[in-house]
Specification:
The chain is an alpha/beta fold and 195 residues long. It contains eight helices and six strands. It has one domain: Toll/interleukin-1 receptor homology (TIR) domain (Rossmann fold, 3-Layer(aba) Sandwich). The protein has a six-stranded mixed sheet with strand order 1-6-5-4-2-3, with helices on both faces. The longest helix has 23 residues. The radius of gyration is 16 Å and the shape is globular.
């Protein structure tokens, strides 16, 4: 596992403060490709933060029965103090993941990237044979996603690829604690800014 600690002050200073925004309901939003990591890494991060007393949003655990899924997710993204984005091999296949990532960046809240089975360079899509480049080619070929939207999503991925994060290499216990420490640091920094 490689630990490349995010720069809290840099991301916090770039945060967008909305005085009329609702109170933060979630401390952290966990963005992930469910088929890849929901039952493993995403769930472990969620439970670790919950056990430490922080309110984390993980769609399967957090959306209440009877609530509209897109509205719940968008609300959680907009109000979370910090976001954890778990990038896995099939992440870019999901338009949901890409939409969420774009909204996370738009919110201005800090993002803690976790790379699971891929390297940050994959998000830059310089290799046409890479998983993410192939996923975007499929999105383009289907014609269901407007080219302008694909361009925004690519830009979001490239931007996040340049944020230092964590590379998951199988040592879950240490990784979970390091992620939690970073997330808590951001949550506390956001609380200080809002005082």
């Amino acid at each position: 596992m490689e630990n490349t600690q995010p720069n809290a002050s840099q991301q916090i200073n770039n945060s967008v403060c909305h005085p009329t925004a609702p109170k933060t309901r979630y401390n952290v939003f966990i963005n992930h490709r469910g088929a890849d990591v929901k039952e493993t890494l995403a769930s472990l991060i969620y439970h670790n933060l919950q056990n430490k007393g922080y309110n984390a949003f993980l769609d399967k655990k957090s959306i209440q029965v009877g609530k509209r899924i897109p509205k719940s997710i968008v609300g959680a993204i907009r109000t979370a103090s910090v976001h954890v984005a778990i990038f896995s091999a099939n992440y870019a296949n999901s338009t949901w993941c890409l939409k969420e990532l774009y909204l996370m960046l738009k919110s201005g809240a800090p993002i803690v990237p976790v790379f699971c089975g891929i390297q940050p360079s994959e998000l830059r899509m310089k290799d046409e044979d890479g998983e993410y480049a192939r996923a975007f080619q499929v999105h383009k070929d289907t014609g269901k996603i407007r080219p302008q939207k694909l361009k925004k999503w690519k830009k979001a991925l490239r931007k996040v690829s340049r944020i230092e994060g964590y590379i998951f290499k199988g040592d879950q216990g240490d990784l979970l604690e390091e992620i939690a420490t970073t997330v808590i640091k951001y949550i506390n920094a956001v609380k200080r800014l809002k005082r």
